[in-house]
Give the backbone structure.
Amino acid sequence: MNASVPLLEALTALSGLLAVLAIATTACKVQRALRLRRRRRLEATVRPHVLRVLAEDENPGSADQMNDSLGRTFEELLISLLPKLRGADRDALVAALDNRGVLERARRRTSRPGAVGRARAAQLLGDSGDERALPGLARLLEDRDPDVRTVAARALGKLGPAAVEPLLAAIDAPRPVPAGIVTMALVHAGAGGADDLAQGLDSSRSARVRAVAAELLGQLGVLSATGRLAQTLADDPDPATRRAAARSLGRLGLPEGITPLLAALREAEPSALRIDAARALGRIGGASAVASLRELLVAPDIEVARAGAEGLATCGGTGMSALEGAAEDPVSAPPAREALARLALYGSRRPAVAP
Amino acid sequence: MTSLVRQWLVGFDWFVLAYFVVLNSLYLLLVTIAALDVARTLRRLAFAGHDDLFANPFTPGISVLVPAYNEEPVIVESVHALLNLRYPEFEVIVIDDGSTDSTFDRLAAVYDLVETDRVIPPVAPTLGQVLSVHAARNGEPLVVIRKQNAGRRSDPLNVGLNAARHPLVCMVDADSILDHDALLRVVKPFVDDPDRVVATGGVIRAVNGSVVEHGRVIEPRMPSGWLPRIQVLEYLRSFLLGRTGWSRLGGLLIISGAFGLFRRDLVLEIGGLDINCIGEDAELVARLHRHLRDQRRPYRIAFVAEPVSWTEVPPTYSTLARQRRRWSLGLAQVLRKHRTMIANPRYGRIGLFVLPYYLLFELLGPVVELFGVAAVLIGFAFGMLNVHFAILFALFAVGYGVFLSIAAVTVEEFSFHRYHRWEDLGIAVAAAVLENFGYRQLHAVWRIRGLIDSTRRRHVGWGTMTRGGFTTAVASDPVSSR
Amino acid sequence: MPTVLVVDDDPDIRDIATMKLEQAGLEVVTEADGEGGLAAALELVPDALLLDWMMPRLTGIEVCVRLREHPQTARLPIILLTAKAQEADIERGFAAGANDYIVKPFSPRELVARITAALARGAK
């Protein structure tokens, strides 16, 4: 049987393939070196113009004349600086880009085929804080490509309070954006979105939306939401939302939060909630929670006990005495001693693990 | 009698041919998938949002677990590098596994360690007793746990798991160097797909010969000995092509113990690491697959191709031989422990494709090779050998091995291009060819010895090798020849 | 003219800070990493130090701690400029001896204001 022939053919094909790979690799390396050198040259030329934009130069006209590769490099350098700056200087960068039509092109790009292009355009629009991009980005929240949806969400979060409602809505959309991504995006939204977020706590919204809204109201420091959050903590049927409300009450730090949080410490409540409530009480501080937190130290769930000790550590002198007392009792000693040790090392800072 | 031998030889030759064709087609498939996936990853890197992850308070916290046994030459630099990783919220937990050298003392001096109280809930089972816990007085998020040695890497890891306070745990080796933003990159799948992703792994690369300063790899370079050079290629094939490919197919079985990120609650749910397994990292992932499929929970285990953990690879034949022998033993143990998953449709593609692949081609591959060589010799002795065909076949086998290595080098050059010097490229090509003349065969022998070890239930201890992790080269294909 | 030492491994930050500070009438010296920054600070003893945190070799925190140990730089106004933005990071920055802490992305105008104020305080 002469199987040698196909084998010979296969061998030839293999050799050809190897040659192709070798050539491709070499070509790639060469091209990269050349491109790098070219890029360095272009950037050196363009850099002073970029700095002039930031120097609020009265006559930036020289920059407008740059075209083709110089112009592109100029724009790319401007874009790369956008995420590094804030305030008037960033506005100057944005204005320079706008003058060159970059933002307009990006806005148009968000509705064209090519997911990578859409995503890059979305990122640029977010970094530039261009509010005109809002409708386009909101549309991208329903994009077929999950990466595009994520980038659009991140970008929208940088455009201010008007982004709150579309982002909340995206959580339950048929092509959803993960709730965590929305939460992370809205961190940048500022307190202006407070009303929309409070609306997100409404019982008509889904559990995921309520949880995100509860989390953000605390993170964004919306003090006026304390009452609403207290109610959510007490009534909401969704455990995750209640936990988020507890954490937020802790972040807001107002004493109005103490009573509902104390109620959440009860034994009947799920452990995860008791833990978040204990930590939140620690953030608010004060002597009123000490007795209830002290009781947690003997809880059978060791994580609940630890959270109780953490809370006590930031409740002033009364909390400290309670801990010291608990450190003598063999049952409550381990978590109490752990909290005391942390206090000795780091002072009364907030607990190790961010609630 | 001759006709019997002839029949046997012909049958076996057909078997080897079929084996060879199946295996190399699979490799080709993996290479193609991997190349496409790496390209896709690269295109999307521009908007991956790592900077946003770094700045965001909701990025999940990571507890980095560093089991350490007699690491005094590297421990301070290693911990220093870890503490300066670019990540918003993390703690570094070093578990001093009963070191007999000055590992602890060095850390204590540099970080002003003070003994402290820390509750370590006994969730995952552990053997060695915890002796003391120490924290850094200067505010660094460093915890050092001293415990009694129990002779295996999984024990300190379980202690670390119990002690960890963040929702994600990253297991690393004490002598490995992570890329500065490795944590940001390896956490991204968890953030993008929080309901499903349960574990991710990154790339391991050989650091030998590279320029390292203050715990950062400033310039990757190919090492100076041929043995480590060949290993560089092995790791490139295994990670850049193998794991990327498998991950894309939803069949990632192995996340290296030197660079894996896991959801802490799930690992504890399944009982932590198996203290009786040498390949405890691979076994953990196998068990995760099993547990989640048993419970019909949708999940994803992903491989992230950009972030690198740089590791010192054995430069001498004896240490390398021991390592590969141990890896083979570990693989055998994992497969034996989870044998009910093999070819079991209940476990989806892991049971139907991945595990059988590891059994037939990775574990038993060297056996086929050995018998293949034997068949050639017997055929030659009996004058039944088609010499012409045998030579062509050998050439093809070698050529295919070279192809896989060059493909890895090509993908690397087009994507991450971590090696800048032209000479490194030349060395890589040379190593790719050289590997097939001696190393491959030796490697097969080492792996067979590991396989034999597993049948004898011989326990190979943790020993002097610092890396107890487990990685498998993709192209451990048979050098069968006719 | 007061001198400000700017230590950051990002050339963009160095360029922008230099330009803005020079516009404000200050003299600026730059260094690209922690080791160079520490050496320059000890030798030059500038009037203010703008210090990045995450740099290869020596981190900003380490530079800050070491500078506080030397008498000539113990009272040097040090402003940290860093992307590390979590509460614990800010705490650690001040604990290491920094006088001010600016989070990236930053406003160059604000930066100039803070440095000018630090210089004024230091001059008294």
The first strand of chain C starts at residue 3 and ends at 7.
